[in-house]
Amino acid sequence: MSPYVSRLRSRPHGPFPGPARLRVGASRRPRRVAMLSVHTSPLHQPGTGDAGGMNVYIVELARKLAAINIEVEIFTRATTGTLPPSVELAPGVLVRHVDAGPYEGLAKEELPAQLCAFTHGVMQTWAGHRPGYYDLVHSHYWLSGHVGWLASERWGVPLVHAMHTMAKVKNASLAAGDTPEPAARVIGETQVVRAADRLIANTAEEADELVRHYEADPGRVAVVHPGVNLDRFRPTGATGSALTGAAGEAAVAESRAAARARLGLPQDAVIPLFAGRIQPLKAPDVLLRAVAVLLEEDPALRSRIVVPVVGGPSGSGLAKPEGLQKLAARLGIADVVRFRPPVGQEQLADWYRAASVLVMPSYSESFGLVAIEAQASGTPVVAAAVGGLPVAVRDGVSGYLIGGHDPADYARALARFAADPSLAARMGAGAARHAQSFGWDTAAAATGEVYAAAIQERRRHLRSLHG
What we know:
Elements lengths: L4 E3 L24 E6 L15 H15 L3 E7 L8 E5 L2 E6 L16 H13 L8 E5 H15 L3 E4 L4 H5 L11 H13 L2 E4 L2 H11 L6 E4 L20 H19 L8 E4 L8 H14 L9 E4 L12 H9 L5 E4 L4 H10 L2 E4 L8 H8 L4 E4 L4 H4 L6 E4 L4 H13 L3 H13 L4 H26 L2
Parallel strand pairs: 2-3, 2-6, 3-5, 6-7, 7-8, 8-9, 10-11, 10-13, 11-12, 13-14, 14-15
Antiparallel strand pairs: 1-9, 4-5
Helix pairs in contact: 1-15, 2-3, 3-5, 7-10, 7-14, 8-9, 8-13, 11-14
Protein backbone atom coordinates (compact mmCIF):
# COMPACT_ATOMS: atom_id res chain seq x y z
CA MET A 1 0.00 0.00 0.00
CA SER A 2 1.20 3.51 -0.75
CA PRO A 3 2.40 5.29 2.41
CA TYR A 4 0.55 8.39 1.29
CA VAL A 5 -3.05 7.36 1.31
CA SER A 6 -4.96 4.75 3.18
CA ARG A 7 -8.42 4.08 4.32
CA LEU A 8 -8.28 3.72 8.04
CA ARG A 9 -8.18 -0.02 8.60
CA SER A 10 -9.33 -2.16 11.48
CA ARG A 11 -6.38 -2.44 13.80
CA PRO A 12 -6.24 -4.82 16.76
CA HIS A 13 -5.02 -2.13 19.13
CA GLY A 14 -6.21 1.00 17.30
CA PRO A 15 -8.71 3.48 18.70
CA PHE A 16 -11.31 2.86 16.01
CA PRO A 17 -12.03 0.60 13.05
CA GLY A 18 -12.17 1.57 9.40
CA PRO A 19 -12.62 -0.09 6.02
CA ALA A 20 -9.82 -0.85 3.60
CA ARG A 21 -8.80 1.77 1.06
CA LEU A 22 -11.08 2.20 -1.91
CA ARG A 23 -9.42 1.96 -5.30
CA VAL A 24 -11.20 3.99 -7.94
CA GLY A 25 -10.26 4.47 -11.56
CA ALA A 26 -8.83 7.77 -12.79
CA SER A 27 -11.91 8.19 -15.01
CA ARG A 28 -13.88 9.02 -11.87
CA ARG A 29 -11.60 11.92 -10.99
CA PRO A 30 -13.08 15.42 -11.21
CA ARG A 31 -12.33 17.62 -14.16
CA ARG A 32 -12.37 20.84 -12.14
CA VAL A 33 -12.15 21.49 -8.39
CA ALA A 34 -13.16 24.61 -6.49
CA MET A 35 -10.51 24.93 -3.78
CA LEU A 36 -11.27 27.28 -0.88
CA SER A 37 -8.74 29.12 1.27
CA VAL A 38 -10.59 31.95 2.98
CA HIS A 39 -8.11 33.29 5.49
CA THR A 40 -4.80 33.09 3.66
CA SER A 41 -3.88 33.40 0.01
CA PRO A 42 -1.62 30.93 -1.79
CA LEU A 43 0.08 34.02 -3.22
CA HIS A 44 1.18 35.27 0.22
CA GLN A 45 4.71 34.88 1.54
CA PRO A 46 4.90 31.89 3.92
CA GLY A 47 6.39 32.61 7.33
CA THR A 48 4.51 35.78 8.17
CA GLY A 49 0.99 36.71 9.22
CA ASP A 50 -1.28 33.70 8.74
CA ALA A 51 0.75 32.38 5.82
CA GLY A 52 2.62 29.16 6.50
CA GLY A 53 2.66 25.49 5.65
CA MET A 54 -0.95 25.53 4.47
CA ASN A 55 -0.08 28.07 1.77
CA VAL A 56 2.74 25.86 0.51
CA TYR A 57 0.45 22.82 0.71
CA ILE A 58 -2.26 24.46 -1.43
CA VAL A 59 0.14 25.81 -4.05
CA GLU A 60 2.10 22.59 -4.51
CA LEU A 61 -0.96 20.33 -4.40
CA ALA A 62 -2.84 22.50 -6.93
CA ARG A 63 0.11 22.49 -9.34
CA LYS A 64 0.41 18.72 -9.21
CA LEU A 65 -3.35 18.17 -9.51
CA ALA A 66 -3.32 20.29 -12.66
CA ALA A 67 -0.47 18.14 -13.96
CA ILE A 68 -2.75 15.08 -13.75
CA ASN A 69 -5.53 16.94 -15.58
CA ILE A 70 -7.54 18.13 -12.58
CA GLU A 71 -8.04 21.87 -13.03
CA VAL A 72 -8.05 23.87 -9.79
CA GLU A 73 -9.63 27.24 -9.04
CA ILE A 74 -8.55 28.60 -5.66
CA PHE A 75 -10.92 31.08 -4.01
CA THR A 76 -9.30 33.34 -1.41
CA ARG A 77 -10.15 36.63 0.28
CA ALA A 78 -8.86 39.78 -1.42
CA THR A 79 -6.49 41.63 0.93
CA THR A 80 -5.80 44.72 -1.22
CA GLY A 81 -7.95 46.70 -3.61
CA THR A 82 -5.35 46.50 -6.36
CA LEU A 83 -5.55 42.72 -6.83
CA PRO A 84 -6.97 41.51 -10.16
CA PRO A 85 -10.10 39.35 -9.91
CA SER A 86 -8.09 36.31 -10.94
CA VAL A 87 -4.45 35.31 -11.34
CA GLU A 88 -3.07 32.28 -13.15
CA LEU A 89 -0.76 30.61 -10.64
CA ALA A 90 0.26 27.87 -13.06
CA PRO A 91 -1.24 26.20 -16.13
CA GLY A 92 -4.54 24.76 -14.93
CA VAL A 93 -4.44 26.65 -11.60
CA LEU A 94 -6.39 29.89 -11.18
CA VAL A 95 -6.51 32.03 -8.01
CA ARG A 96 -9.76 33.99 -7.63
CA HIS A 97 -9.84 36.98 -5.26
CA VAL A 98 -13.13 37.46 -3.45
CA ASP A 99 -14.14 40.77 -1.88
CA ALA A 100 -15.21 40.04 1.70
CA GLY A 101 -14.72 42.66 4.36
CA PRO A 102 -12.02 45.36 4.57
CA TYR A 103 -8.92 44.58 2.59
CA GLU A 104 -6.44 45.15 5.39
CA GLY A 105 -6.34 45.01 9.16
CA LEU A 106 -8.78 42.12 9.51
CA ALA A 107 -7.61 39.49 11.98
CA LYS A 108 -8.34 35.81 11.38
CA GLU A 109 -10.58 35.84 14.46
CA GLU A 110 -12.79 38.44 12.75
CA LEU A 111 -13.26 36.46 9.56
CA PRO A 112 -16.32 34.41 10.61
CA ALA A 113 -18.38 37.59 10.23
CA GLN A 114 -17.25 37.82 6.59
CA LEU A 115 -18.12 34.27 5.55
CA CYS A 116 -21.49 35.32 4.18
CA ALA A 117 -19.85 37.91 1.92
CA PHE A 118 -17.19 35.41 0.85
CA THR A 119 -19.81 32.78 0.06
CA HIS A 120 -21.72 35.35 -1.99
CA GLY A 121 -18.57 36.03 -4.05
CA VAL A 122 -18.02 32.31 -4.68
CA MET A 123 -21.65 31.88 -5.72
CA GLN A 124 -21.45 34.84 -8.10
CA THR A 125 -18.53 33.20 -9.88
CA TRP A 126 -20.35 29.87 -10.03
CA ALA A 127 -23.50 31.54 -11.44
CA GLY A 128 -21.48 32.81 -14.39
CA HIS A 129 -20.65 29.28 -15.52
CA ARG A 130 -22.64 26.49 -17.09
CA PRO A 131 -24.27 23.93 -14.76
CA GLY A 132 -21.83 21.33 -13.47
CA TYR A 133 -18.78 23.54 -13.96
CA TYR A 134 -17.22 22.44 -10.66
CA ASP A 135 -17.19 18.72 -9.90
CA LEU A 136 -16.02 18.93 -6.31
CA VAL A 137 -15.20 21.38 -3.50
CA HIS A 138 -11.97 21.04 -1.52
CA SER A 139 -11.85 23.36 1.51
CA HIS A 140 -8.86 24.11 3.73
CA TYR A 141 -9.23 25.08 7.42
CA TRP A 142 -12.58 25.35 9.18
CA LEU A 143 -13.50 28.83 7.89
CA SER A 144 -13.29 27.59 4.31
CA GLY A 145 -15.16 24.46 5.35
CA HIS A 146 -18.29 26.47 6.12
CA VAL A 147 -18.23 28.08 2.69
CA GLY A 148 -17.54 24.68 1.15
CA TRP A 149 -20.45 23.14 3.04
CA LEU A 150 -22.90 25.59 1.47
CA ALA A 151 -21.31 25.37 -2.00
CA SER A 152 -21.43 21.58 -1.89
CA GLU A 153 -25.13 21.60 -1.00
CA ARG A 154 -25.99 24.25 -3.58
CA TRP A 155 -24.02 22.70 -6.43
CA GLY A 156 -24.80 19.08 -5.61
CA VAL A 157 -21.14 18.04 -5.53
CA PRO A 158 -18.98 16.37 -2.86
CA LEU A 159 -17.14 18.33 -0.19
CA VAL A 160 -13.59 17.22 0.67
CA HIS A 161 -12.14 19.04 3.66
CA ALA A 162 -8.66 19.34 5.18
CA MET A 163 -8.52 20.66 8.76
CA HIS A 164 -4.77 21.46 8.82
CA THR A 165 -5.10 22.31 12.52
CA MET A 166 -7.82 21.53 15.06
CA ALA A 167 -8.94 23.71 17.95
CA LYS A 168 -9.37 20.84 20.40
CA VAL A 169 -5.91 19.50 19.65
CA LYS A 170 -4.27 22.92 19.94
CA ASN A 171 -6.08 23.70 23.19
CA ALA A 172 -4.91 20.42 24.68
CA SER A 173 -1.25 21.41 24.28
CA LEU A 174 -1.07 25.19 24.60
CA ALA A 175 2.22 26.95 25.19
CA ALA A 176 2.45 28.98 28.40
CA GLY A 177 0.64 32.27 27.94
CA ASP A 178 -0.84 31.32 24.58
CA THR A 179 -4.48 32.10 23.80
CA PRO A 180 -6.93 29.16 23.57
CA GLU A 181 -8.98 28.70 20.43
CA PRO A 182 -12.56 29.94 20.95
CA ALA A 183 -15.60 27.73 21.44
CA ALA A 184 -17.06 29.08 18.18
CA ARG A 185 -14.23 27.44 16.26
CA VAL A 186 -14.80 24.11 18.01
CA ILE A 187 -18.48 24.23 17.08
CA GLY A 188 -17.65 25.27 13.52
CA GLU A 189 -15.15 22.46 13.08
CA THR A 190 -17.63 19.91 14.40
CA GLN A 191 -20.21 21.07 11.85
CA VAL A 192 -17.75 20.85 8.96
CA VAL A 193 -16.66 17.35 9.98
CA ARG A 194 -20.27 16.21 9.87
CA ALA A 195 -20.93 17.89 6.51
CA ALA A 196 -17.86 16.69 4.59
CA ASP A 197 -18.06 13.74 2.22
CA ARG A 198 -14.37 13.09 2.85
CA LEU A 199 -11.84 14.39 5.37
CA ILE A 200 -8.15 14.41 4.48
CA ALA A 201 -5.77 13.96 7.40
CA ASN A 202 -2.01 14.43 7.16
CA THR A 203 -1.21 11.44 9.36
CA ALA A 204 -2.88 8.44 10.97
CA GLU A 205 -2.62 10.27 14.31
CA GLU A 206 -4.56 13.24 12.91
CA ALA A 207 -7.17 10.82 11.57
CA ASP A 208 -7.49 9.32 15.04
CA GLU A 209 -7.91 12.79 16.50
CA LEU A 210 -10.71 13.59 14.05
CA VAL A 211 -12.59 10.52 15.21
CA ARG A 212 -11.77 10.89 18.89
CA HIS A 213 -12.36 14.63 19.27
CA TYR A 214 -14.95 15.31 16.55
CA GLU A 215 -16.72 11.97 16.11
CA ALA A 216 -15.76 11.80 12.44
CA ASP A 217 -16.94 8.74 10.53
CA PRO A 218 -13.77 6.62 10.08
CA GLY A 219 -15.01 5.52 6.68
CA ARG A 220 -14.86 9.12 5.46
CA VAL A 221 -11.33 9.85 6.68
CA ALA A 222 -8.36 9.33 4.37
CA VAL A 223 -4.69 9.80 5.24
CA VAL A 224 -2.59 11.66 2.67
CA HIS A 225 0.89 12.73 3.70
CA PRO A 226 1.82 16.16 2.36
CA GLY A 227 4.80 16.33 0.04
CA VAL A 228 7.84 18.46 -0.56
CA ASN A 229 9.13 20.11 -3.72
CA LEU A 230 12.14 17.87 -4.29
CA ASP A 231 13.40 20.01 -7.17
CA ARG A 232 13.67 23.09 -4.96
CA PHE A 233 14.57 21.54 -1.62
CA ARG A 234 17.65 19.38 -2.13
CA PRO A 235 21.38 19.54 -1.47
CA THR A 236 22.93 21.66 -4.20
CA GLY A 237 24.07 19.50 -7.07
CA ALA A 238 22.89 16.24 -5.51
CA THR A 239 20.07 13.85 -6.37
CA GLY A 240 18.41 11.08 -4.39
CA SER A 241 20.64 8.39 -5.94
CA ALA A 242 23.80 10.29 -4.93
CA LEU A 243 22.96 10.57 -1.23
CA THR A 244 24.29 7.27 0.05
CA GLY A 245 27.50 6.46 1.86
CA ALA A 246 30.55 8.69 2.04
CA ALA A 247 29.67 10.30 -1.31
CA GLY A 248 26.29 11.38 0.06
CA GLU A 249 27.87 12.88 3.17
CA ALA A 250 30.42 14.71 1.05
CA ALA A 251 27.66 16.09 -1.22
CA VAL A 252 25.70 17.39 1.78
CA ALA A 253 28.82 18.95 3.33
CA GLU A 254 29.71 20.63 0.03
CA SER A 255 26.14 21.92 -0.36
CA ARG A 256 26.23 23.31 3.19
CA ALA A 257 29.54 25.10 2.61
CA ALA A 258 28.26 26.71 -0.60
CA ALA A 259 25.03 27.90 1.07
CA ARG A 260 26.97 29.39 3.98
CA ALA A 261 29.19 31.28 1.54
CA ARG A 262 26.14 32.68 -0.24
CA LEU A 263 24.51 33.77 3.05
CA GLY A 264 27.68 35.15 4.60
CA LEU A 265 27.75 32.61 7.43
CA PRO A 266 30.96 31.25 8.98
CA GLN A 267 32.00 27.90 7.57
CA ASP A 268 32.98 26.31 10.89
CA ALA A 269 29.97 27.47 12.92
CA VAL A 270 27.36 25.35 14.65
CA ILE A 271 24.11 26.73 13.19
CA PRO A 272 20.79 25.64 14.74
CA LEU A 273 18.04 27.23 12.63
CA PHE A 274 14.46 28.19 13.42
CA ALA A 275 12.29 28.85 10.35
CA GLY A 276 8.58 29.65 10.49
CA ARG A 277 5.99 31.88 12.03
CA ILE A 278 7.05 33.43 15.33
CA GLN A 279 4.29 32.56 17.78
CA PRO A 280 4.04 30.59 21.06
CA LEU A 281 2.63 27.54 19.23
CA LYS A 282 5.89 27.14 17.26
CA ALA A 283 7.99 27.62 20.44
CA PRO A 284 11.03 29.48 19.05
CA ASP A 285 11.68 30.52 22.66
CA VAL A 286 12.55 26.90 23.46
CA LEU A 287 15.42 27.08 20.96
CA LEU A 288 16.73 30.31 22.50
CA ARG A 289 16.53 28.88 26.00
CA ALA A 290 18.29 25.71 24.81
CA VAL A 291 21.11 27.78 23.31
CA ALA A 292 21.45 29.64 26.63
CA VAL A 293 21.76 26.29 28.44
CA LEU A 294 24.29 25.09 25.87
CA LEU A 295 26.47 28.20 26.27
CA GLU A 296 26.30 28.05 30.02
CA GLU A 297 27.64 24.49 29.91
CA ASP A 298 30.21 25.24 27.19
CA PRO A 299 31.14 28.97 27.14
CA ALA A 300 33.81 28.37 24.49
CA LEU A 301 31.06 27.50 22.00
CA ARG A 302 29.94 31.15 21.90
CA SER A 303 32.66 32.00 19.39
CA ARG A 304 31.40 29.46 16.87
CA ILE A 305 27.62 29.35 17.16
CA VAL A 306 25.12 31.31 15.06
CA VAL A 307 21.37 31.01 15.65
CA PRO A 308 19.27 32.30 12.73
CA VAL A 309 15.56 32.91 13.34
CA VAL A 310 13.89 33.28 9.94
CA GLY A 311 10.23 34.32 10.02
CA GLY A 312 7.75 36.94 11.16
CA PRO A 313 5.28 37.34 14.02
CA SER A 314 1.95 35.56 13.61
CA GLY A 315 -1.17 34.67 15.58
CA SER A 316 -0.87 35.39 19.28
CA GLY A 317 2.77 36.31 18.63
CA LEU A 318 1.56 39.58 17.12
CA ALA A 319 0.69 40.80 20.63
CA LYS A 320 4.43 40.90 21.47
CA PRO A 321 6.26 41.21 18.15
CA GLU A 322 9.55 42.08 19.87
CA GLY A 323 9.18 39.41 22.54
CA LEU A 324 11.74 37.01 21.09
CA GLN A 325 14.39 39.71 20.67
CA LYS A 326 13.86 40.77 24.28
CA LEU A 327 14.13 37.16 25.43
CA ALA A 328 17.45 36.77 23.60
CA ALA A 329 18.73 39.86 25.41
CA ARG A 330 17.52 38.63 28.81
CA LEU A 331 19.19 35.26 28.23
CA GLY A 332 22.45 36.96 27.29
CA ILE A 333 22.59 35.43 23.80
CA ALA A 334 21.61 38.41 21.62
CA ASP A 335 25.12 38.40 20.16
CA VAL A 336 24.68 34.95 18.60
CA VAL A 337 21.05 35.21 17.44
CA ARG A 338 20.29 36.65 14.00
CA PHE A 339 16.69 37.62 13.29
CA ARG A 340 15.74 37.58 9.62
CA PRO A 341 12.39 38.37 7.95
CA PRO A 342 10.50 35.70 5.97
CA VAL A 343 12.17 34.84 2.67
CA GLY A 344 11.06 33.29 -0.59
CA GLN A 345 11.21 29.56 -1.15
CA GLU A 346 14.50 29.60 -3.07
CA GLN A 347 16.34 31.53 -0.35
CA LEU A 348 14.63 29.48 2.35
CA ALA A 349 16.16 26.38 0.78
CA ASP A 350 19.58 28.02 1.18
CA TRP A 351 18.93 28.72 4.88
CA TYR A 352 18.04 25.05 5.34
CA ARG A 353 21.20 23.91 3.50
CA ALA A 354 23.39 26.26 5.52
CA ALA A 355 22.12 25.08 8.90
CA SER A 356 23.72 22.36 10.98
CA VAL A 357 20.25 21.41 12.20
CA LEU A 358 16.69 22.72 12.03
CA VAL A 359 15.04 23.02 15.44
CA MET A 360 11.26 22.60 15.55
CA PRO A 361 10.02 22.53 19.18
CA SER A 362 6.34 23.11 18.31
CA TYR A 363 3.55 22.38 20.77
CA SER A 364 1.31 21.17 17.95
CA GLU A 365 1.90 20.32 14.28
CA SER A 366 -0.55 18.55 12.01
CA PHE A 367 2.43 17.46 9.93
CA GLY A 368 5.39 19.85 9.83
CA LEU A 369 6.22 20.72 6.22
CA VAL A 370 9.20 22.77 7.36
CA ALA A 371 10.76 19.61 8.80
CA ILE A 372 10.42 17.77 5.48
CA GLU A 373 11.74 20.76 3.50
CA ALA A 374 14.82 20.98 5.71
CA GLN A 375 15.52 17.26 5.48
CA ALA A 376 15.09 17.28 1.70
CA SER A 377 17.71 20.06 1.65
CA GLY A 378 20.16 17.80 3.52
CA THR A 379 19.65 19.14 7.03
CA PRO A 380 18.72 17.01 10.05
CA VAL A 381 15.91 18.09 12.36
CA VAL A 382 15.55 18.24 16.14
CA ALA A 383 11.80 18.32 16.75
CA ALA A 384 9.17 17.86 19.42
CA ALA A 385 7.54 14.44 19.23
CA VAL A 386 4.07 15.93 18.63
CA GLY A 387 1.41 15.64 15.93
CA GLY A 388 2.81 14.60 12.57
CA LEU A 389 6.47 15.26 13.40
CA PRO A 390 7.17 11.61 14.32
CA VAL A 391 6.10 10.79 10.75
CA ALA A 392 8.07 13.63 9.21
CA VAL A 393 11.27 12.92 11.17
CA ARG A 394 12.89 9.49 11.42
CA ASP A 395 14.31 9.49 14.92
CA GLY A 396 18.02 8.69 15.04
CA VAL A 397 18.35 8.66 11.24
CA SER A 398 17.18 12.02 9.90
CA GLY A 399 17.15 13.84 13.23
CA TYR A 400 16.11 13.54 16.86
CA LEU A 401 12.64 13.60 18.38
CA ILE A 402 12.31 15.18 21.83
CA GLY A 403 9.56 14.32 24.28
CA GLY A 404 8.30 17.57 25.78
CA HIS A 405 9.65 21.12 25.66
CA ASP A 406 12.38 21.24 28.29
CA PRO A 407 15.17 23.45 26.86
CA ALA A 408 17.76 21.21 28.54
CA ASP A 409 16.64 18.27 26.37
CA TYR A 410 17.06 20.33 23.22
CA ALA A 411 20.42 21.59 24.46
CA ARG A 412 21.63 18.00 24.83
CA ALA A 413 20.60 17.25 21.24
CA LEU A 414 22.35 20.38 19.95
CA ALA A 415 25.46 19.49 21.96
CA ARG A 416 25.85 16.37 19.81
CA PHE A 417 26.21 18.52 16.70
CA ALA A 418 28.63 20.84 18.48
CA ALA A 419 30.78 17.94 19.70
CA ASP A 420 30.87 16.08 16.37
CA PRO A 421 31.24 18.35 13.31
CA SER A 422 30.65 15.39 10.96
CA LEU A 423 27.24 14.56 12.48
CA ALA A 424 25.40 17.21 10.45
CA ALA A 425 26.64 15.71 7.18
CA ARG A 426 25.96 12.10 8.22
CA MET A 427 22.45 12.78 9.46
CA GLY A 428 21.90 15.28 6.65
CA ALA A 429 22.45 12.59 4.05
CA GLY A 430 20.02 10.34 5.93
CA ALA A 431 17.55 13.20 6.11
CA ALA A 432 17.72 13.82 2.37
CA ARG A 433 17.17 10.13 1.65
CA HIS A 434 14.24 10.02 4.09
CA ALA A 435 12.60 13.03 2.42
CA GLN A 436 12.71 11.38 -1.01
CA SER A 437 9.62 9.37 -0.06
CA PHE A 438 7.58 12.56 0.37
CA GLY A 439 6.86 13.86 -3.12
CA TRP A 440 3.95 16.06 -4.21
CA ASP A 441 3.36 13.87 -7.27
CA THR A 442 2.40 10.98 -5.01
CA ALA A 443 0.41 13.24 -2.69
CA ALA A 444 -1.57 14.66 -5.62
CA ALA A 445 -2.30 11.20 -7.02
CA ALA A 446 -3.52 10.09 -3.59
CA THR A 447 -5.70 13.20 -3.27
CA GLY A 448 -7.14 12.40 -6.70
CA GLU A 449 -8.12 8.98 -5.34
CA VAL A 450 -9.90 10.63 -2.42
CA TYR A 451 -11.77 12.89 -4.85
CA ALA A 452 -12.74 9.92 -6.99
CA ALA A 453 -14.02 7.97 -3.99
CA ALA A 454 -16.13 10.95 -2.86
CA ILE A 455 -17.62 11.40 -6.34
CA GLN A 456 -18.38 7.69 -6.70
CA GLU A 457 -20.07 7.55 -3.32
CA ARG A 458 -22.14 10.64 -4.11
CA ARG A 459 -23.27 9.06 -7.39
CA ARG A 460 -24.21 5.81 -5.65
CA HIS A 461 -26.22 7.78 -3.12
CA LEU A 462 -28.07 9.66 -5.85
CA ARG A 463 -28.85 6.42 -7.70
CA SER A 464 -30.28 4.90 -4.52
CA LEU A 465 -32.52 7.95 -4.01
CA HIS A 466 -33.94 7.67 -7.51
CA GLY A 467 -34.49 3.94 -7.40
